[in-house]
Every structure is written in C-alpha cells, then in structure tokens.
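Quick one, tokens below:
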C-alpha cells in the first residue's frame, strides 16, 4: 500500500481525495494540510518517513512558489503529482522542471487522480494531456541543446534499453555511452530541468520529442 500526502489550501478538495483513497483501499493518506511547511513539520515531529506520493496544488495561499514547493518535496524524498487546473502552462512547466512527476487536472474524475497516484507510486512516468499541453504551449521551455549522438543515446536509453545494449546498438564503447548519459544529465541541470533517475530522463526525452508519449523511440 502506497502512502500519500495531500497538500492543498482547499480543505474540501483534500477531504474528497482522502475519502476516495480510503474507499479504494490501496492508498493510505497519512497527511493532509495546506502547505509544504506543515507537511515537513509533521514529518519532523512524527518521525515518519517520506511519503510515496505528494498530491500538490499548483498554487498555495502561503506565498510560496511551485518551484520551491516541488523542489523541496522531491529533495525530501517524495514523488510529486500536481493536482490543479490546467490553464496555466507556464506554472505547470515550472513544476515539471522542478521535478514533479506529472500533472492531473482538478476537473478529472477521482478515479483518474487515483490512477495517477498509483502510476507515480510505481516509479513510472505519468503521461497526460495536461502535461503535453503545458510543454507544447510554452515556447520558453528550456532546450538542453543535446548533440546528435546524445539524442541517439537518450532516445534508446530512455525507451528502455540497458546502457550496455545502447552502446552495442550504436557501435560505441560502454564507457562512451555512460559519458553521454552523464553529459545529458549535466545539460538538463544547467537549464533547470534535472533528470537524476532513468524515469526523469524518460520524462525529459518525451518533453523534447525524442521519445513518443508511449515510451517508444521517436522517428524524429
């Protein structure tokens, strides 16, 4: 059973999600509150480990930014699902760049929100219309300026091939493929789009059209 924290300054939203999680039975809400600070205080005083998934509102009423909220939660060890209206692509892009696993609209059915939580709890990338719209609609999305070889390595690696197989497919040494992945990660950090895990690299590859939304390598 995955553990979930709900952070939203609208209590009615939190109560609805908590009731849905309780009804389904495979996700346990261990924290519900209006700010990230409240969640961290609860963690500190209770000694509880980081939750598996934090469902976070895009904009909270305490003056914090989505970037600092997502970055703080990810650094603390949780995966983050943004739960908000899907009409602010720049803010959604900031959340994704800060490390959010994806976004699900508040207009979505509760079942879709719970499915999103399950997906992220399994460590899988969350693909949805809101995410794609945010990236496609924001022309200021930072380009990591990957080289042709780096794009080739990322395309195969993010699509699921082990790094050794990537090297064999491209006819390069394993060490060369590994160096490419290292450089790719550095480049994404430099443009504010960190990708410390393979799931993160898949997310970046999909955002940049290197891998299709279903995880298959793009023909581009």
């Amino acid at each position: 059973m995955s553990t979930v924290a709900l952070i939203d300054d609208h209590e009615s939203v939190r109560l609805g999600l908590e009731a849905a999680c309780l009804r389904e039975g495979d996700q346990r809400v261990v924290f519900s509150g209006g700010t990230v600070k409240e969640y961290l205080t609860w963690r500190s005083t209770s000694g509880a480990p980081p939750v598996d998934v934090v469902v976070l509102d895009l904009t909270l009423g305490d003056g914090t930014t989505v970037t600092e909220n997502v970055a703080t939660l990810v650094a603390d060890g949780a995966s983050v699902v943004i739960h908000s209206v899907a009409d602010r692509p720049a803010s959604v892009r900031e959340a994704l760049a800060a490390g959010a696993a994806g976004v699900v609209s508040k207009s979505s059915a509760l079942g879709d929100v719970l499915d999103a939580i399950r997906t992220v709890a399994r460590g899988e990338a969350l693909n949805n219309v809101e995410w794609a719209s945010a990236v496609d609609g924001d022309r200021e999305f930072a380009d990591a300026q990957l080289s042709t070889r780096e794009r080739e390595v990322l395309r195969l690696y993010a699509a699921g091939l082990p790094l050794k197989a990537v090297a064999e497919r491209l006819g390069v040494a394993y060490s060369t493929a590994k160096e490419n992945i290292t450089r790719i990660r550095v480049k994404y950090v430099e443009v504010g789009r960190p990708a410390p895990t393979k799931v993160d690299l898949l997310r970046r590859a999909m955002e940049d059209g290197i891998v299709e939304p279903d995880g298959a390598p793009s023909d581009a």
